[in-house]
Amino acid sequence: MEQHGTRPAQYGPRRSRAALPPQGRGGAAAGRPVGRPTGPRAGGGPARAATGRQAGRPGPPAAARGAGARRTMPNPRLTGLGSGLFCAAVMIVLGYLDALLFGASLTVYGVLFVPVCLLTAVWVRRGDLLTAPVVVPIAFAVGLVTVAESGDGGLGGRLMGIVTALATEAGWLYGGTLAAGSTVIVRRVRLMRRRRAAARNRPPG
Q1: CB atoms within 10 A of CB 152
Q2: Which one, of 195, 187, 191, lies nearest residue 132 by Cα?
Q3: Measuring CA to CA, which of 51, 72, 103, 112 is 20 to 30 A from 197?
Q4: What is the pTM of this model?
Q5: What is the pLDDT of residues 25-46, one digit of tens each?
């Protein structure tokens, strides 16, 4: 007769279940992937952040760009003596061109004198602004040597031609001097306003 073996009962405390892996747990751990780094990606995160900051950085303002464009324009600063030499040299050159191309026309010479006066008044430095209206009439008389009538060809005839040209072209002489003087006055007023604004904005010391 077969005897069925019976398994002896095990006494003692039952072992608890093995701890479930994080995938089986509920709560916040269930939705978080395992093994995925929470920080920025290696090799991509910081570079992309720096690129984003550079892309979002505003460019230079329009005023700065305009100032940079203005710096490219010629803007010399002449002393009082330099402005006189500049104006006289330019009028001599223009006088020779006038004699060569227009037959020493005093009208053409007078018309060319006005823009030269404006350039002289604009390019003279701030400390020598008052010299511009003084040197332009002298430069006008110096340049007349190239276009004035010489008469008999001697020195006396040349001087008489210059005096006659000064008398007949006095309108252009006064016009150029007035243009230079007006430009100097405008620059002087602007300079005084800037100085007052700078003194007003200066912190009390």
Answers
A1: 9
A2: 187
A3: 72
A4: 0.62
A5: 444 444 444 455 454 454 445 4
User: Where does the pLDDT of residue 114 fall: very low under 50, low under 70, confident under 90, or very high at 90 and above?
Assistant: very high
The residue with tokens 């505003």 is: 58
Contact predicate 80/124, CB 8 Å = yes
DSSP letter assigned to residue 26:
-
Query: What does the CA dihedral 28, 34, 40, 41 come to, rounded to 10 degrees?
Result: -160
| β-pair partners for 7 | none
C-alpha 193, offset from chain centre: 21
With 0-12 CB in 10 A as exposed, 13-18 as middle and 19+ as buried, what is 141? middle
| Three-class SS state of 78 | strand
